[in-house]
Amino acid sequence: MEVESFMTEFLRQVGGVAVIDGGLATELERHGADLNNPLWSAKCLLTSPHLLRSVHLDYLEAGADIVITASYQATIQGFEAKGFSREESEAMLRKSVEIAREARDIYTENCSKSSCEGAEDGKILKNRPILVAASMGSYGAYLADGSEYSGNYGEAITVEVLKDFHRRRIQVLAESGADLIAFETVPNKIEAQAYTELLEEEDIKIPAWFSFNSKDGVNVVSGDSLLDCASIVESCKKVVAVGINCTPPRFIQRLILAIKKVTAKPIVIYPNSGERYDADRKEWVESTGVSDDDFVSYVNNWCEVGASLVGGCCRTTPNTIRAIYRTLFNRSHA
What count of Cα atoms within 13 Å lies in the side-chain half-sphere of residue 70? Predict the structure, then answer.
């Protein structure tokens, strides 16, 4: 399939709007994982791949059409800093995709064994196309100091420095068996530029989406114009969707409307729970977010103004995704 028609065709197959999975780290911790580590959820690639597979499966059974790999914080440089070789580091990137693909295979097999097409014991078992998106976290995510929430990398970090940092990781993930690359929580214009240049220079064969984050509902977190960032992405034919992640739900509608001014690409939206992240303490501040019911109450509006892919980011759960699935199902059958 042509890269440019990839997402349009996928959205047609799933009924117009696709469901993305939800938060990974929160669920891994709920399953007993200890993520107090610069590698964050990528630590589970080393210690507990079975937990990752289980969480991916939970999201598929909650109705997700797209699962995102545990490679957000998995960088070659980060693994090497922990004493792993270049070969071992690249193998762990590939493993993140392999685990998600295994979860998809298990889910597909469970669907074929199921006696009913639909929900069973609260699980949504429905044969449908499912994509594995290889997560690419920003340079700030590698630093593990919260700078993906500020976008402030300092003057020494240029487009060329970022390209050198990301180049091999993009190559490995593009050849890993993933269906697309998800450039997530992009905090500034310079990193968007670096990514788009790499997609072209390295002739990456699989499509990509870009999702930026915002803390004011107007600009990306660095203060760069969202319109400028989305315009950079619009010009790259290898990018099949653009949008917002890890941003409070209350800002999403106006951000969708802004993105639509500069692109006709499908819009991808997966906000966090609305809770505030304390970068100094490296934890989410309890009771600062919205409930699943409140989160899902926004979904119809997001779709009405142009969202084509909807899910959750940090602190959202399979329950959130199941509620999104049901909302979209009811919307399509109204």
Answer: 32
CA 5 to chain centre: 20
3-state SS, the chain, equals: CCHHHHHHHHHHHCCCCEEECCCCHHHHHHCCCCCCCCCHHHHHHHHCHHHHHHHHHHHHHCCCCEEECCCCCCCHHHHHHCCCCHHHHHHHHHHHHHHHHHHHHHHHHHHHHCCCCEEECCEEECCCCCEEEEEECCHHHHHCCCHHHCCCCCCCCCHHHHHHHHHHHHHHHHCCCCCEEEEEEECCHHHHHHHHHHHHHCCCCCCEEEEECCCCCCECCCCCEHHHHHHHHHCCCCEEEEEEECCCHHHHHHHHHHHCCCCCCCEEEECCCCCEEECCCCEEECCCCCCHHHHHHCHHHHHHHCEEEECCCCCCCHHHHHHHHHHHHHHHCC
The whole-number pLDDT of residue 288 equals 53
Q: Check residue 118 and give its pLDDT.
A: 66
Q: Are 61 and 130 in contact (CB under 8 A)?
A: no
Over the chain (334 residues), the average pLDDT of each successive run of 10 is 88 96 89 72 81 96 97 92 93 96 97 76 91 97 88 95 98 98 98 98 97 96 97 97 95 97 97 71 59 87 97 93 93 71
Question: Are β-strands 283-285 and 276-278 bridged in parallel, bridged antiparallel, or unpaired?
Answer: antiparallel
pTM above 0.90, yes or no: yes
φ, ψ (nearest 5 deg) of residue 99: -65, -45
Widest CA span in the chain? 59
What pLDDT does residue 31 have? 81
